[in-house]
Structure formats: C-alpha cells, structure tokens
Amino acid sequence: MRSFLPMKQALESDFTPPVEALSPKNFQVVEVESIDLFVRIAQFIGFPKSFGEIYGLLFTASEPLSLDDICERLNMSKGSASQGLKALRGVHAVKTTYVPGDRRDRFELEGNIRLLMQGFLQERLEPGIRDLGVRIESLSSKVNALQNGEKKRYNERLGKLRNWHKQAQKIMPAMERLLGG
Amino acid sequence: MRSFLPMKQALESDFTPPVEALSPKNFQVVEVESIDLFVRIAQFIGFPKSFGEIYGLLFTASEPLSLDDICERLNMSKGSASQGLKALRGVHAVKTTYVPGDRRDRFELEGNIRLLMQGFLQERLEPGIRDLGVRIESLSSKVNALQNGEKKRYNERLGKLRNWHKQAQKIMPAMERLLGG
DNA sequence: TATTTTGTTCAAAAAATATTGAACAAAATA
DNA sequence: TATTTTGTTCAATATTTTTTGAACAAAATA
Asked: What is the end-to-end Cα distance of chain B in Å, rounded?
C-alpha cells in the first residue's frame, strides 16, 4: 500500500508548537484508521472494500478530492474509483462539487452516515424484505394444492414464517427513523 | 441439478382423488420454491447458498434427514453438507435427532426462523456494532493529537458518527425482541 | 481385532466477486 | 478544428469465497 497523506497540512501553517509538529504523522494514522473503519462498514452492508476506502478517504479530507487524488492516495485504478464513486453517488453518500479554477470533478461526502444508511435500508433491505413477502405468499398459494397431511405440516411452518415476516416489516420504519433519518 | 423429491409421498396412501394425485409434482414445486426462498434468506444474512439449500430442504422435510439424504437430494458433496450442517447447528438453526434403528445422524430444524435470526443478530450483527464502537473510540482518542483545525473538523464528523452508532445500539434490543425472540 | 459405516477436515478446484487498465466518448482548451 | 484532459465502460485479470472430494478418525458391526 502506498503513502496515504501528503505533507500538505503541515506546510499550511508557519508555526506549530512542538507536540503539534507531529501532526502529519498523527494525521496519517488517523486517516488510515478512518479508512479502515469505513471499509468495515462497507463490507458489513455488502459493498466492496474499495467503496469503503473511498468513503473513508473522503471522510478524512478537508476539501473535495478529484478522481486522480483518490486513485493516487488509495493506490487504486481509475476504473475502480470511478465505479465506486458512481455507486456512492447512487446511494447519496457522495456528491460532486464544483471548485473554481479546476475543471475536474471534485468529490465530497454528502451529509453523514445516516444518508448512506438510508440508501442501504431503502434500496437493499426494504426490497429484500418485500421480495421475501412475495415469495412466502407464492409458496402459500402453492401449498394449497398439496395433500392434506403435507398441507397441514407446511402451513404450520409457513404460518410462523409469515408471522416473522410481518414483524420484520413492522420494525423497518423504526430502523429507517433511527438509523437513516 | 438433480431430481428433488422421491415419490414417497405418493406411495404412502393407496388412494387419492384425481386432483391430489398430482401432489408429488406439486410437492416438488413447493420444495424447490422453499429452498429458493431460504437460499435468498441465507445470502441476505451472508451465508453461502448451500446453507440456505440445506435449511430449505429441512424446512420441507416431513422427517429428520441424514447427511446422505441431504447430499443426494441437493446434489451436494458430503463435505459441503457436513460444513453447512455444522454451521447451522452452530447458530441453533438445525439440531441432530436420534431415530431408532438408524445409526446415522439425522438432522431437522431447531425451532423456527426466529432462532436462526437470533443467532445472526447475536453472533454477527451485535459484535459488528460493538466493533464499530471500539474503532470509533480509538479514532476519537487519536484525533486529540491532531492540530486544532483538523481536530475540530474531525470531531464534528466523528460526533455525528458516534451519535449514529448510539442509535444503532439502541435499536438492537428491539430487533432482537421482534425478530429473534 | 478387522471391516464397514459414518462424519469431519482441509488442500485443491470451481465459482463468484472485485479490480484493473485500455479503449472510448465527452468536454475543455489551444 | 485538432489536441489534451477527464471520466466511464467493460473485457480481462486478480482476488476472495465456496464447494468438492479424498484422506482421515471415530464409532459400529462382524
């Protein structure tokens, strides 16, 4: 893996007290740990590692970064960065920003983690739950064509499953309110 | 893929009315659809497909199945079935049952989907959330060593993240109650 | 005890998924 | 308009994950 952060921050002020002179190094540590954190979150919600890296880098950035910045700092191909940014923009986790005097796109976080979670909840979890409902109902109707014994056994199990699915649907709004609001 | 269900059910009764004579075929359809359903659920919570297949097959089974039964009906290797069953037993989704006159292990579902979810919530989601907390706190402490400007910017973002994490922790018990209870 | 049956483990193969990089198109500049 | 810069797409490659199957150990049977 390549170096993570340039010396920019250190060079921006003329004077810093001794303990703060260590800042660039500390900043690198913090940056690496931030990226690591978001890589975990990404993997947790089923995104590839690279998406987490990009998000983590933007989390630490003090200004919007260009595609090239991202590739360079994360040692990642342009293709990956482009795809990752596209996906992250898709879930409203990242937005494009105009920076005067630079004709390249610049990227920064859009809102906070809640927005990212909202995307996940609404575009992955919710449809998933809905799909389960469709499948359970389809199964239920087909079970009616079975022999009595089989039908009874199935319906018992399906009933519990249907019940559980209802609960899952019931808790969704609360999750969206608390985590995605 | 191989045939899914033997003719057993059809052969168990001497007479069935015309419409029910179709039962074996219907049963196969239902079985395939059940397995499909649980494959989705498995993939949803990050288990391999084969785990879902096993669970789905056991969901449809009228009696505890042996390892060989499972391999045969799902056209799956012994190794896969063994590993899948081990994992499913680990999350209390499947249990071993003694069947007189058969020295092979027999497997059946343990409780309903709630138990499986409980396993997922307690053994995956909860530790994941806890790990995030640890990482966020580690980051927070390291941010204190940064320069003032950086520190301020970071703490703003970290504050929101910490806040979000608290909400996530808060909603866990409700999820466990509704989905895993 | 020797043989068979049963289930587990793990290295290797296969499958699924993510990443790369070169070709391309679109937009900006010369 | 020709050239350069920028970002996207997608086939090829690399990586990760899952599955297989043969070797093994444990338990049951002969």
From this structure: 36
For residues B171 and B174, what is the distance between their CA atoms, to the nearest angstrom? 5
Give me the amino acid identity at B26. N
Q: Determine how many CB atoms are found less than 10 A away from the CB of residue B106.
A: 17
Contact A40 B132 (CB under 8 A): yes
Residue with tokens 């239902």: B30
> Using the 8-state DSSP alphabet, how is residue B5 labeled?
-
What are the pLDDT digits (tens) for B27-70?
A: 788 999 999 999 999 998 889 999 999 999 999 999 999 999 99
**Three-state secondary structure call for residue A95:** strand
Which of B16, B142, B179 lies nearest to residue A167, judging by beta carbons? B179
CA distance A104 to A63: 14
Give dist(CA B32, CA B26) in Å, integer: 10
Write out which nucleotides of chain D lie closer than 7 A to a protein Cβ: 5-11, 17-23, 28-29
Residues 6+ apart with CB under 8 A from A85: A54, A67, A70, A94, A107
State the number of CA atoms in the 13 A half-sphere of A60 facing the CB.
30
What letter represents residue B101's amino acid? G
pTM: 0.83
Distance CA A35, CA A53 (A): 5
CB atoms A146 and B175 under 8 Å: no
CB contact under 8 A, A135 and B33: yes
Rounded Cα–Cα distance for residues A31 and A23 (Å): 12
pLDDT for A70-120, tens place per residue?
999 999 999 999 999 999 999 999 999 999 999 999 999 998 899 888 888
Which H helix or E strand runs over A65? strand A65-66
Dihedral in degrees, nearest 10, Cα atoms B136, B138, B144, B149: -40
Strand ranges, E, within B89-176: 94-97, 106-109
Rounded (10°) CA dihedral A9, A13, A17, A23: 0
Beta partners for residue A96, in sequence order: A107
